[in-house]
Design goal:
Elements lengths: L1 H7 L4 H6 L18 H11 L1 H10 L2 H20 L5 H62 L1 H13 L1
Bound molecules: zinc ion.
The site of zinc ion has 8 residues, from helix 2.
Amino acid sequence: MSSTSNYSTPPCAACKFLRRKCLPSCVFAPYFPPEEPIKFTTVHKVFGASNVSKLLNEIQPHQREDAVNSLAYEAEARLKDPVYGCVGAISVLQRQVLRLQKELDATNADLMRYANNNNNNNNFQYGRRMVNSGYYNYSSAWNNGISGGHNNIGTDNCDGGR
Ligand SMILES: [Zn+2]
């Protein structure tokens, strides 16, 4: 019976590697499937199976998958780069962020200068337009004054007469 059930559900990658029976309560089984043996050996080589087991038991079940994935990422980076591990990748990215931040600041400064120049040009044009429209208003007022000249002159004369 047990041999049949073992055959239908193979042990997880951790239990297979550690040569132990994979129980239904195995903390590794959901995160280290038998078809991904490298994932466990990498994590085990760097962190040790008992530390990983302890860590998984200390955190909430819904966070365990993320924890295992981050451990696998860190372990892989540590094996590739024994000196810096994933810190090497982090410092490269941090330098990139600093460089991009400087580029962004410079671009924003250019944009501000461009916007200011554009505003000055617009103000200048607006000013000219204002002068022009002022001129037109003045001339139209003048024309109105001419057209209504007789009435105005008449009342002015009447007032002056009193
Ligand atoms: Zn297992």
